[in-house]
Fold this sequence. Notes:
3 domains; 4-stranded antiparallel sheet; about 15% strand; two-stranded antiparallel sheet; Chitinase A, domain 3; extended; about 50% helix; alpha+beta; single chain
Amino acid sequence: MNIHRRYFLAAVAALSLAACEQPATTTRDSIAATVGSDVISEVELGRAVARLGEMNAAEAAQSRGRVLEALIDQHLVSHAAKKAKLDQAPEVALAMQQAQRQVLVEAYMERLFKDMAQPADTDIQDYYAKHPELFAQRKVYRIQELELQLVPARVAEVEAQLKQSRTLAEFADWLRAQGIAGKTGVAVKPAEQIAAPMLAQLSNMKDGQVVVVPMGENRVSVLQLQGSQAQPVTLEQARAAIERVVLGEKRKTLLEAEIGKLRASEKVAYASGFAPASQTGKP
């Protein structure tokens, strides 16, 4: 991919949101270029350059001209698309509506979270104490996993066969004979890279033990712990990561409460056949 096209694609991605961020008026001194009746402001150009990532002053200055040319190309292609009436095509109009909604959602969330305080030290300490498997008792696990496509009704049958099988290979042969699809692999993973349902089982297992873990959506994992090594993490080592997790949980709680209020304030009506299975749950 040549460098001009790379900058053009980067500008298309970056400016899909920036187009909604333009001020109502742009002074002549702040204009970087015009394309027909369209204005490319210095603010728009600066934000597009910033979205390319961290750069030193020389790299930013070099990128500035290339990004401006890419933005001009973007406007020209957009004009051509409108002349061809592509903006009136149903799939394009729908995509434009979805992009606009996403921009508004992100702006609303940014305002919602703006004044949220950073987690207190007690919050961080509490999280550390409640998750020893991730920190004080953290391990690196060597696991052999059989990931199966299995309906919930057959889980008990699979567990019973697993207990009867002398080896995991014998169990795998039985699965094939039963026509149960799956894939196998061996991985070495630290605790923080293992899904919570698996980690809850592994942290209490001894080397060589095997367990069946339902993973949802007709997926089941058969795990054999081949070995583990203790690699604990101190509170200070984990502080930054815990702070991000706790802050994320607080944001999630706040957002769910806000969505609850918005749902209560607006009338939501499902068409026939689209209502959620449980009216008390979220669709």
